[in-house]
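Fold it.
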Amino acid sequence: MALRPPPSRSKPVPDESTIDARGRYHPGRMGEIRKQAHEKLFLQRPSVEQRVWKGPGAWKWKETGRLDFDDVIGDGFCARYSREFLVFNKKEDKVLAEFLEDLKAKCKRKSDQKDMVRLVAKEVSMAFGGLDPKVASTWQKRIDVLALPVGDSLHIGKLMRQPGVRFSGAGMCRHRTLLFKYLMDELKVADCAALTGVIVPPDVTNVDKFRKQNGFADHAWNIVIINGANNLLDIMNTPTELRTPNDKGELQLKAGHTSYRYYRIEGGAGISSLAAPRGDACEPSSDDDDYASLPEAEEEMDACCNFAAAAPSWPVDEVYCRSSGKLEPVLYCEPREPGRYLVEFEVEIGGKCWRARKETSTSSRSGGDVEKHGPCFKDV
């Protein structure tokens, strides 16, 4: 087995996360905090380091926060974050295995590549709570309930919606991005890459300041090749929207009245080139007192950007359900014709959690013509 490459000679690390004059994002000290946390866990539990080293693509994801199109991941892939050690293995994860088989059957009924990509993206979104603004708190509660010791495996299926279980699923952008990459490699629908970085307004240069003021910045997303062109897919915020760069080669997302730009780690805002620039890696100092509150500081960098929690970007965020007699939060919204949308939501009836789908309009969310489209329930 190949040995892990020796650490490069250390060099000074800038304190702040910034976007430089060339439009490239540098994580600064936050990146070093992440590396320090990995090393601390690996010293405590060497078996975890072995799993990361052996897992297909896992070491590259840890080191660069990037998986390119030719980085095929599969069973055994794992990723460590401040509160979880994610594992992807359908042989050990019944929920993941059943989810994959269900998608295989659904993809067979599609002939267009773009339709299949959107189908898988939508299913991934729904499995992790859809566009529910409360998905972050639901995920937090789920982690607390599971109460796994640091370094113990958290199979991705534990965070996904399960048939017959009163848990709608809860996954942040990192969970969705990695699961989508795993599924694309398994289903062979399209070449797919996974990236991490930040999403901030175009005029932001001090990412640390923006992160502290707004409570988010770090993000994860996918790039898929369709008809020879790169398309950005943000399953956390716009799960079925495939976006290409503007005239400047940049990618932006509009949420509310603000535009946001995607920057990958040590890279710019474009998607035509995924290779990170060459350079010496920086090793954190082991005697630095600034790492005293390591877990708390590192948690700030977990990719968890969720615009739905602050400013929903879909036109219908709740819909009246005749069966429950109240407004229910929309988990998925798809335009059908001008002013009308197909929405999906979940509702509890008779102690069971059901999925509902109906057509509605932005002007009749709480009544009107919503009523005549009786809900089409399906057991989840």
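Residues 29-44 form the longest helix (16 residues).
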